Amino acid sequence: MTAGPTARSFSKRQTRQLWRFFRFWTYFFNERPLRAGLSLLMSDQEFGRLGNLLGAPPLDQGNGQQFSPWGQVIRPEESPTGELPEVQYLFLPSRLGPADSERLARALEDESITWTFVATDGADWSDVQRAAATAIACSSDQDLLYTDELYAEEQFPTLRPPRIGPHTLLSGNVIGRHYLLRNSSARLAGGLRGDHGSASEFDLFLRMLDEGARFGHYPFLIHAPRPEVTDLDLQQATAAALDRRSVASLRTEGATQGVVGWHVYSIEPVTVEILIPTRDRLDLLLRCIEQIERLTTYVHYSITILNNDSVHSATLEYLASTRHKVVNCPGEFNYARIINRGAAQSTAEFLLMLNNDTLIKTSNWLELLLGVALLDDVGVVGAKIIDQHNQIEHSGIALAPYPQHIRHGINTPGNWRDFTGIRNVSAVTGALHMVSRVKWLELGGMDEDLAVLLNDVDLCLRAELKGWHTVLQPAVVVQHFVSSSRGRLNPRGDREEFIQHWDIFRDYQDPYFPSASSLYGNRLVLGTSTERLFRWPTVLGALLGRG
User: Fold this and answer.
1) What is the rounded distance in angstroms from the CA atom of residue 164 to the CA atom of residue 147?
2) Residue environment code for 371-382, b if the CB has 16+ CB neighbours within 10 A, otherwise e
3) pLDDT tens-digit map of 112-164
4) What is the pTM of this model?
5) Residue 349 CB partners (closer than 8 Å, separation 6+)
6) Is 454:478 a contact under the CB 8 Å cutoff?
């Protein structure tokens, strides 16, 4: 008697290999050599080396240069042209005065006109016409469309993301000028008011956001002077926006160079539990805890040490005698599992995950983090992190296209003011992040299949799907002695699992990072499609560690 056919079963490793094979050839036959190459094996270090093989393409600074959402350059003569009877144009000075606000208010009240395109005095008329035509072509269901600008006396353009985050907008006028505004949407938000002087446009944008207006980016680069707004006007507009959100207590910390500092605070104290994973390295753990105890001004916090199989006698003696809670988390190192176990025993209202190889540098750090985390629409809050050499290591994480640390001033231009205030990002690092315990439980904690890498990014992306934004609070500064505690663990399986789940090299687009740019380690690549830039010698060279 012969045995019948049996079902073929595949291990998890074999399934991943089949998926990579399928994805590789899908990208290859769709003429996507970069994504095909990256879908192979690639560590974070290898991905960063890819950037070193590049020279950023020269940015043609001729007037009206236009960027598509995919990064390739489209010349002005290729832009849409023709009469736009539904659009009225309004040129305003760099600083809005009372008479200018009145002109804009009257223009927006005109019910016979669908759109108003606002430009700065001195902008080239032909560029303005092309910009307006491009914006109309992208308008569909949008209420306000904004674009990229190159300001006078600045060599690097201000590139804007596909989406304006609600917390980014609270920090300043990131819309700029040269925007296309639907008149009816402006009227629905109450129209332009002169209550906030030079920040009257900014105030209108905030009220439109409150009313659910849809903001979108249109691909154009236009030259003009930078709009001027007094910091006091900005601060008052932000304070009014927070008031409208019915926040019980709020505080604006002033404004500097067009960026408003703000946070909310709770009248009733809320509790924070700081979870610190460790395995031995008592020197790092003591330094981290002593700095917290010495510097922290907030009093309603506790520290829990998550012990992952420490064996050194000095460490075991400390853990047995410390006044802080100790939770034993035995087994092979799995950061997500360790954090989940620590969070499961907590009764605090907020959880803060902190690496043991960090040093807090800001005394009111917990107040500032809570000042964002207390908002109902916020999921995860992170901080600005510097390395052991005092260089910026982290000011958010961008998926552009692979998850990379934004290092403002190093791999993004210093004149991108949007990146200096409280802002929305796709993710923040797990070296320090805060989240409400209620939201943590609803998210199910960290994905333990991502044992070491990308579990922090995955958590933030899942929170975004639930409508909880990830926010960077750059006023909190933390020093991170990178990989001091565990060395450079870089498991291949975590990357494969993350890429397969989120399919970041295919359809995912980071909503909070300029779409006309890509990040490769410390290199920002602009204005040229990465799919055209890379060919097999470059991809294979990076994979082999050359260059």
Assistant:
1) 11
2) bbbbbeebbbbb
3) 999 999 999 988 898 899 999 999 988 889 999 999 999 887 888 899 999 99
4) 0.83
5) 270, 271, 272, 436, 437, 438
6) no
